[in-house]
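Re: [ENG-882] Designed sequences occasionally contain unexpected residues at chain ends

Forwarding the minimal case from QA. Structure tokens:
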């Protein structure tokens, strides 16, 4: 009875409930572990100096470029179904190493900067690979109904993670949070295995199971070449570039105002954690009850366009009132909209490409393109601030970028509909 009510409430088929629960759990564990560390990352960024953030963004881009051949090598030679296990296991070992580093040298500035760069690479690759698995396993019609619900696990994890971080940072310290995050990451790999086994029992085609047991093959650098050959994937790259640019402009303002108003490290961690809690609380209700229904009835265009349009008005408000309170509201609305609408819609765009592109090209766009845009826009923001000495100028420029983002989102939605044949 309860299961029947649950499936009707969330528009599920009886046979899909186990997979949706496993996908929800995958994202819950992954995001709980990451968002527990996100406030730590922001604190480490401020430790290195707000004036040096553009250098951290540039270092992150270089580190992402260096990581891509390694990921490409794994994706080319490991069974498709096992790519996530290799990636998550590698990152769990890294987290353990950083934990011991913080135990031995908690105030080391270079360790803080290294951790900031590393986790900025980790979060994009790990999240992209998790979505690659779901894009690979679910058909287009299922994706429209189910991706929003499973993304709700990300928001719940994003709510629980910073709550744990705020509650535990004074008890177990930053090193303890890293070790706990590593355990969450290993458990997330177990949830991904449950989704794989569900699809094994219900293959979409006769050849599907055999295909997922084979390596993808090809070059470790195939992700970049696949993107450059496809106007559709170039369009997705532009969408990600504009998204990252908008995020970076707001991120720099957040770091500047938090440093100004909250000088203590633990207080900074708590402020960042509190913002994350509010964002995820708003996101999860939308993901569970709105995202799937909007995608089915209005198409993915509404998911890709609504948030950029709202962000345009947010930047204009910030131009006239550049205070921490206004910045916090704009950040919360934009980030909640990204998790509830932009991310599921963005992942749906990949359902119409070939399997190799779902892993290699997608990860290239989600990591290299994203971090490249971060680095470029960070220097642009620093340059505008240095020349104009007026936050309003940067805010107006952010509004223009957000407007271009909205037009690009609408064009991508039309291209997806055309490729999917309806």
């Amino acid at each position: 009875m309860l299961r029947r009510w649950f499936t009707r409430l969330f528009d599920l088929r009886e046979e899909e409930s186990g997979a949706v629960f496993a996908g929800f759990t995958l994202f819950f564990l992954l995001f709980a572990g990451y968002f527990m560390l996100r406030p730590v990352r922001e604190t480490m960024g401020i430790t290195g100096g707000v004036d040096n953030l553009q250098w951290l963004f540039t270092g992150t881009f270089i580190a992402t470029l260096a990581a891509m051949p390694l990921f490409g090598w794994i994706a080319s030679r490991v069974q498709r179904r096992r790519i996530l296990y290799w990636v998550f296991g590698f990152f769990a070992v890294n987290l353990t190493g950083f934990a011991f580093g913080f135990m031995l040298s908690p105030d080391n500035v270079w360790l803080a900067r290294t951790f900031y760069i590393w986790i900025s690479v980790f979060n994009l690759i790990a999240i992209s690979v998790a979505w690659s698995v779901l894009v690979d396993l679910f058909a287009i019609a299922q994706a429209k109904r189910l991706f929003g619900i499973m993304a709700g696990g990300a928001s719940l994890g994003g709510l629980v993670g910073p709550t744990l971080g705020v509650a535990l940072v004074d008890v177990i310290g930053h090193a303890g949070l890293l070790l706990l995050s590593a355990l969450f990451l290993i458990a997330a790999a177990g949830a991904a295995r449950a989704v794989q086994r569900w699809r094994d029992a219900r293959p979409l085609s006769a050849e599907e199971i055999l295909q997922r047991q084979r390596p993808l093959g090809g070059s470790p650098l195939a992700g970049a070449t696949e993107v450059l050959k496809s106007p559709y994937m170039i369009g997705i790259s532009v969408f990600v570039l504009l998204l990252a640019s908008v995020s970076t402009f707001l991120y720099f303002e957040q770091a500047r105002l938090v440093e100004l108003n909250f000088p203590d490290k633990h207080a900074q961690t708590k402020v960042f954690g509190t913002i994350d809690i509010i964002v995820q609380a708003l996101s999860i209700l939308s993901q569970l009850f709105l995202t799937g229904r909007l995608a089915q009835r209005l198409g993915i265009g509404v998911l890709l366009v609504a948030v950029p349009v709202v962000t345009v008005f947010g930047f204009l408000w910030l131009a006239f009132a550049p205070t921490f309170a206004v910045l916090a509201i704009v950040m919360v609305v934009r980030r909640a909209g990204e998790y509830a609408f932009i991310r599921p819609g963005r992942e749906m765009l990949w359902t119409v490409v070939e399997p190799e592109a779902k892993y290699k090209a997608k990860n290239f766009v989600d990591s290299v393109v994203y971090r490249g845009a971060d680095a470029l826009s960070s220097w642009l923001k620093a340059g505008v601030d240095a020349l104009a000495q007026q936050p309003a100028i940067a805010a107006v420029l952010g509004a223009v970028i957000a407007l271009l983002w909205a037009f690009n989102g609408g064009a991508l939605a039309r291209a997806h509909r055309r490729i999917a044949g309806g």
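QA comment: On inspection the terminal residues look reasonable. The chain has a mean pLDDT of 80. Proposing we downgrade this to a documentation issue.
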